[in-house]
Amino acid sequence: MSQELRIGIVGLGRLGKRHASNLAFRVPGASLVAAASPVEEERRWAERALPGVRIYSGLPDLLADQTVEAVWLVTPTSLHADQTIAVLEAGKHVFCEKPLALEVEDCDRVLDVARRHGGQLAMVGFMRRFDRAYAEAKRRIDAGELGQVFHIACRSEDPIDPDGFFVKFAPTSGGIFLDCCIHDIDLVQWMLDGAKPVGISATGTRIMYPALGECGDVDNGFATVTFESGAVATFHVSRTSHQGYEATMSLSGTKAGIDIGAGLTRVPTLSRSTGGRFLEGQTDFFQRFDEAFLLEANAFVEAVRSGKPSPLSLEDAREATDLACRLRDALKV
Ligand code: NAI
């Protein structure tokens, strides 16, 4: 391997631009050498923002670039499984944004191919695991400080988006449980060490964004999952927050509890708008998880360079898709 890991990114949309800038300028040991997008405007952005990076219009051209050692997929979720397979079969390492796929069968196809390419790293982008607060909670659970965890309450709220980006995004995102709640699903399964879900229920609303009904999606999702151990996880995931971006988790154990993400702020200022209050600095997930995205990229580069296993396995990503699909299918509104 070269001194720096040579990475090519595919997808330069809302999140792809952020990953590209991180990989180009902020991740030690990484060198962004190529970027691909089918959208001309995004390629023009790359020419301006990523000097010296080779620019392609799609994954096949980028895969043919022999200098690329690892591929970063930040493309619509409906493409993830096939593109991850294509990257592995081209002999390169792969990072794929969450979720790995919208159906378990597609995750299984990826796992089959990955088993045949064991020398290549494959990792899915559940970046919240790299957030210092969630990582600390996991450390305390593993150290036994909480005793037996019996309830995890998760809340992930996106601020109201007057442009309705997510309504356009919904047909390829898989809906609120696969697109948004999947972060909390992955975290709960991680915190509970892969505990088996034995009972689920889900409901939701689409009162603010009725157009989501066309693809069976909702603007607020609520779910309860009971695990074999008796632990219960509750999820509330929303696209309609009046108080800005929020991602919180409250864990209760037999010895202690821990709250994550509540009251987090960069500027100690409490704002009020449309009847709500929010802490400055949490307008979107980029601000809340900026450091986590960087730590995630560092972990990928470090794992490739050291030959260690993926810090976030495809098997875990499969389990997250499995539970998210079951919640999606349980949703009857
Ligand atoms: P987006 O729609 O803004 O960007 C998608 C990109 O994929 C665009 O650059 C588009 O040109 C490109 N693209 C479309 N078809 C393509 C094809 N056939 N070949 C190559 N490129 C193609 O979407 P966004 O918000 O950037 O999301 C992308 C992925 O990132 C999704 O899977 C989403 O779930 C994930 N995501 C993860 C987040 C996280 O918290 N980890 C947050 C936001 C998104």
TrEMBL record:
<dbReference type="Pfam" id="PF22725">
    <property type="entry name" value="GFO_IDH_MocA_C3"/>
</dbReference>
<comment type="similarity">
    <text>Belongs to the Gfo/Idh/MocA family.</text>
</comment>
<dbReference type="GO" id="GO:0016491">
    <property type="term" value="F:oxidoreductase activity"/>
</dbReference>
<keyword id="KW-0560">Oxidoreductase</keyword>
<protein>
    <submittedName>
        <fullName>Myo-inositol 2-dehydrogenase / D-chiro-inositol 1-dehydrogenase</fullName>
    </submittedName>
</protein>
<dbReference type="InterPro" id="IPR036291">
    <property type="entry name" value="NAD(P)-bd_dom_sf"/>
</dbReference>
<dbReference type="Pfam" id="PF01408">
    <property type="entry name" value="GFO_IDH_MocA"/>
</dbReference>
<feature type="domain" description="Gfo/Idh/MocA-like oxidoreductase N-terminal">
    <location>
        <begin position="5"/>
        <end position="124"/>
    </location>
</feature>
<feature type="domain" description="GFO/IDH/MocA-like oxidoreductase">
    <location>
        <begin position="134"/>
        <end position="258"/>
    </location>
</feature>
<dbReference type="GO" id="GO:0006740">
    <property type="term" value="P:NADPH regeneration"/>
</dbReference>
<dbReference type="GO" id="GO:0000166">
    <property type="term" value="F:nucleotide binding"/>
</dbReference>
<dbReference type="InterPro" id="IPR055170">
    <property type="entry name" value="GFO_IDH_MocA-like_dom"/>
</dbReference>
<dbReference type="GO" id="GO:0005737">
    <property type="term" value="C:cytoplasm"/>
</dbReference>
<dbReference type="InterPro" id="IPR000683">
    <property type="entry name" value="Gfo/Idh/MocA-like_OxRdtase_N"/>
</dbReference>
